[in-house]
Specification:
8 helices, globular, alpha/beta, 7 strands, 257 residues, 7-stranded parallel beta sheet, single chain, binds NADPH dihydro-nicotinamide-adenine-dinucleotide phosphate, Rossmann fold, binds 2-hydroxyethylsulfonic acid
């Protein structure tokens, strides 16, 4: 029996990495999935690949979560087939740049704060009313070990992930009476497009992040997400930290040369 049969799910940042892997797991489990991301072509390809699966509907949503009006309009006009929403995965996010505060780029800060914090808020604000009527609705937020420990040159990215932790705790309290749960999964190093984006296409710098140890895969995080999202309704994982075996803290990694 599929664990999420006929449930409706929204996954932001579904074009790549962790979001894509979670969305695929949800589709395999029979959920109707709304795929949010900016890269339209990728969304279309995923929808074409996954939609033919028995029982699963896939709705590609080309949407920049930073665009408040577009987010409001999209969820205002969501087709009834995708309501009520049972699962929201707030995954869209990025790091941009890697320098100390006195040398930081204003545009990088705007991108990270607008996406990782404000975008998450805009989507949550619009989705929560659409969860009314769902049996056991859940919100899953992608935090990070960077939201638990600050590291050199991580400043603003870390601050945005500390904010995700705070917002997850706020959601847990504020949505208690609505019977909506909130979970944050906080991974350490996961090899995705993340470091390529942070280092702005400098592939050598991105590769170096994962050198000498085995990082998590997006699928590892998706397995954890599926666990959290398919627990019996009475159970909730509030916070989960997930690291590679070789990573003890945000910065302490056993690398083999
Ligand atoms: P990827 O770069 O592979 O994926 C990021 C996703 O976010 C893409 O699908 C991208 O889609 C989407 N996205 C970025 N900006 C926007 C936007 N403005 N509007 C809509 N979608 C957006 O990275 P990961 O999969 O690794 O990252 C996913 C989440 O996990 C992030 O929140 C990240 O901070 C967090 N995380 C990552 C870790 C890692 O080591 N990789 C560890 C801990 C947490 P598109 O470009 O098409 O819009
Ligand atoms: C991403 C993990 O340590 O590269 O959140 O910042 S890290």
């Amino acid at each position: 029996m599929k664990a999420l049969l006929k449930k409706n799910a929204v996954v932001t940042g579904a074009t790549s990495g962790i979001g894509r892997a979670i969305a695929e797991r949800l589709a395999i489990e029979g959920a109707n999935v709304i795929l949010v991301g900016r890269r339209e072509e990728r969304l279309r390809e995923l929808a074409e690949t996954w939609a033919p699966r028995e029982f699963t509907n896939v709705l590609p949503a080309t949407l920049d979560v930073r665009d408040r009006d577009a987010v409001v309009e999209f969820f205002d006009e969501l087709p009834d087939d995708y309501k009520p929403i049972d699962v929201l995965v707030n995954n869209a996010g990025l790091a941009s740049g890697f320098s100390s505060i006195d040398q930081g780029e204003f545009d990088d800060w705007d991108k990270m704060i607008d996406t990782n914090v404000k975008g998450l808020l805009y989507v949550t604000r619009q989705v929560v009313p659409l969860m009314a009527g769902a049996e056991a609705p859940r919100i899953l937020n992608l935090g990070s070990t960077a939201g638990r420990e600050v590291y050199l040159n991580g400043n603003v990215y870390c601050a945005t992930k500390f904010a995700v932790k705070a917002l997850n705790r706020a959601m847990r309290m504020e949505f208690l009476e609505k019977n909506i749960t909130a979970t944050t999964i906080d991974p350490g190093f996961v090899e995705t497009e993340f470091s390529g984006v942070r280092f702005k296409g400098d592939e050598a710098a991105a590769k170096k992040v994962y050198e000498g140890f085995e990082p998590l895969t997006a699928e590892d995080v998706a397995d954890a997400a599926l666990y959290c999202l398919t627990l019996p309704p009475r159970v909730n994982v509030n916070e989960m930290i997930l690291t590679p075996r070789a990573q003890a803290t945000a910065t302490m990694v056993r690398r083999e040369s």
